[in-house]
């Protein structure tokens, strides 16, 4: 266990260092072991402690572990086979989510002690055994720093009769299930970034150059001959005092030559009247004093015709 304990301690320290921005991890599993060469050797139950490092840009993993198979009892005999030791491996890790979950395949080298034990209390025999190791599995991370591991692997050519026949060997199949703690390697969830607020640039208008004062060109004074005013021709009256006239429909007869004066009567269309005097002109037009059968008053010239 000397090599394994030092390697695991180094990985644990590395996981809390600045280098842990990539995936440093450690964990532990329960292990079910099986000596595949024998039908009469029962399965054993042991454990495994591991630590490793996964590349951030390269899908490479490096891992060390300490493991024990537990006692694999032999049917009908008070004898059990077991192995404990350490392993180092390298492999491929394919990440498939943002938390750091992924599947892996690794190969490596193991070394440790194979033991043949008398379970009735008669002692045990140990012998160093080493060889190749392999595993296939998956790390499923339920959070950025915590997840579960499941894998199946094996130790090849483990001495199964230590102290009796060093050349007698068997492969040991290992089924592992446990937990893994990761430090780094997971992609942080994207944070909401508010959309930038557009601020229009303030444009300062260029100063307008001051115009030179305008100086009118000198012009010699001109002398104009006086123009005689055109004679004012007074409009000739359309009607003459004492002449007859005919009222247009709706002609109003008033007491005074003004529209503000009360209407004495309204004449019907074509009614004949006589103009009694000259007309009176004001802002409302020309007014004639008219008389007729039982009427006398002022009528505006626009209501009269010849």
Automatic annotation (TrEMBL):
Signal peptide coordinates: 1-22
Signal recorded as keyword: yes
Domain annotation SH3b: ranges: 251-304
UniProt entry tagged with the keyword Signal: yes
Keywords: Signal
Domain Outer membrane protein beta-barrel: 9-183
One family name in Pfam for this protein: SH3_3
InterPro entries tied to this protein: Beta-barrel_OMP, OMP/PagP_B-barrel, SH3-like_bac-type
Protein name stated in the entry: Outer membrane protein beta-barrel domain-containing protein
Native species: Stenotrophobium rhamnosiphilum
């Amino acid at each position: 266990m000397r090599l394994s304990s030092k390697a695991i301690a180094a990985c644990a320290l590395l996981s809390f260092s600045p280098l842990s921005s990539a995936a440093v991890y450690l964990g532990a599993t329960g292990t079910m072991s099986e000596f595949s060469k024998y039908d009469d050797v029962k399965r054993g139950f042991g454990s495994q402690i591991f630590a490793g490092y996964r590349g951030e840009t390269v899908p490479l993993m490096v891992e060390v572990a300490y493991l024990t198979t537990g006692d694999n009892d032999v049917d009908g005999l008070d004898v059990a086979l077991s192995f404990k030791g350490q392993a180092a491996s390298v492999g491929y890790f394919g990440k498939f989510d943002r938390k750091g979950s992924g599947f892996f395949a690794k190969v490596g080298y193991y070394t440790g002690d194979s033991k043949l034990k008398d379970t009735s209390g008669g002692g045990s025999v140990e012998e160093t055994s080493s060889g190749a190791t392999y595993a296939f599995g998956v790390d499923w991370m339920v959070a950025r720093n915590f997840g579960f591991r499941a894998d199946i692997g094996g130790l090849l050519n483990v001495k199964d009769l230590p102290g009796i026949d060093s050349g007698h060997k068997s492969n040991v199949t290992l089924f592992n299930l446990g937990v893994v703690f990761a430090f780094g390697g997971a992609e942080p969830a994207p944070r909401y970034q508010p959309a930038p607020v557009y601020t229009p640039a303030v444009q300062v208008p260029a100063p307008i150059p001051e115009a030179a004062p305008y100086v009118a060109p000198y012009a010699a004074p001109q002398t104009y001959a006086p123009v005689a005013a055109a004679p004012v021709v007074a409009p000739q009256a359309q009607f003459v005092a004492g002449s007859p006239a005919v009222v247009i429909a709706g002609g109003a007869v008033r007491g005074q030559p003004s529209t503000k004066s009360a209407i004495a009567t309204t004449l019907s269309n074509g009614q004949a009247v006589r103009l009694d005097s000259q007309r009176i002109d004001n802002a409302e037009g020309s007014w004639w004093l008219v008389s007729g059968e039982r009427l006398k008053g002022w009528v505006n010239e626009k209501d009269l015709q010849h």
